[in-house]
Amino acid sequence: MTEVDRWTSPEVPEPARLAAAKGIVPLPPHALVTVVARLLTDPSPRVREAAQGAWAELPANVIGAALESRELPAEALERLAGRSDLPRPLVLRLLQHPGLTPEAASRFAASPDPEIAAQLARNHRLLVRAPDLAHQVLRNPILPPEERSRLESLAAEQRGEEPGPEAAGAGESEENEAELPPALPPVLVDDEAPPPEAEPERENLYQMVRSLTVAQKIRLAMLGSKAARRLLVRDTNKAVVRAVVQSPKIREDEVLAIAQDRTVAEEVIRLILQRRDWVKSYPIRVALCQNPKTPLPKALRLLETLQDRDLRQIAKSRNVPSPVSSGATRVLARRRKL
């Protein structure tokens, strides 16, 4: 019996279920939210009424913590999607959850909030499984033009059409159900470093990735290995690159390596800058300031957050754009005057 079942099963005495319905049992956030959601349909009217009261009063911080857990099941996510009072920050996190079903997400397809519509449009994993949902998102007039362009481009690729010149390379969120080739080597699906004998397979990885369709590359970028992501982040198709950066498997050390790579496309750096959780990482901020692909206004703003020792290094470096080194010098000078 699972932790949730211990409080929600019909075999559990009603007093225990009633306590759980009130949200007063010691459970981690994801389990607490799941328990209260499940007890909304309990056979006992007393339990249902208590669960309805607790569900309406669930604190935002508890819901937020629950949404951080991959263990939050689809039934709880669907209940959360049905709440009309869910704050926008929690809706945005809900739309990123890997367990969200297309049915639950469809509640937001016609959202009048452009940020929510854009977040849904960027959920590759979800739209891959639900082309109909992607079409619903495209029908939303509030969808930002850049997201619409990417969705339309990928939809055209699925139909076997060539994307138009404005959308070429921009499709990102809709994928067909084509499976990856059946004989892919373990390096494609294993995030651990391959043993020495697997080096020939690593050498074949590049050729194998080249043989994939855009839809398969997106799938691989989202679910594949570190080695695959290292290759796909250099793909010419922006949809593939965005899928790499949005992969639920990508780790901070990978993002740092990308930020330090002076040869990656500027689009990749822009995608990293859009992720607040990554920009909070101090090593990533330092790498972004030193990368010439970082847009100058962003780099100059990031300089303000760096420590003096790193600013001195940037100020003396010949490997950073001169406006950035000059900016580091100005920040240091200003701090000495304070």
Detailed description of the structure:
About 13% of the residues have low confidence. The protein folds into four domains: 99 residues, no CATH class; 61 residues, no CATH class; 65 residues, no CATH class; 65 residues. It is 58% helix and 0% strand. The longest helix is centred in the last third of the chain and has 16 residues. It contains 23 helices and no strands. With 338 residues, the chain is mainly alpha-helical. The chain is globular.
Features:
single chain, 338 residues, mainly alpha, 4 domains, 58% helix
Total helical elements: 23
* Ends distance: 62 Å
Average pLDDT figure:
82
| Number of structurally distinct domains | 4
Q: Biggest sheet, open or closed, and with what strands and sense? A: none
Please report the total strand number as a whole number.
0
In one word, what is the shape? Answer: globular
Assign the structural class, choosing from mainly alpha, mainly beta, alpha/beta, alpha+beta, or little secondary structure: mainly alpha
The string of secondary-structure elements, in order, is HHHHHHHHHHHHHHHHHHHHHHH
Helical amount? 55-70%
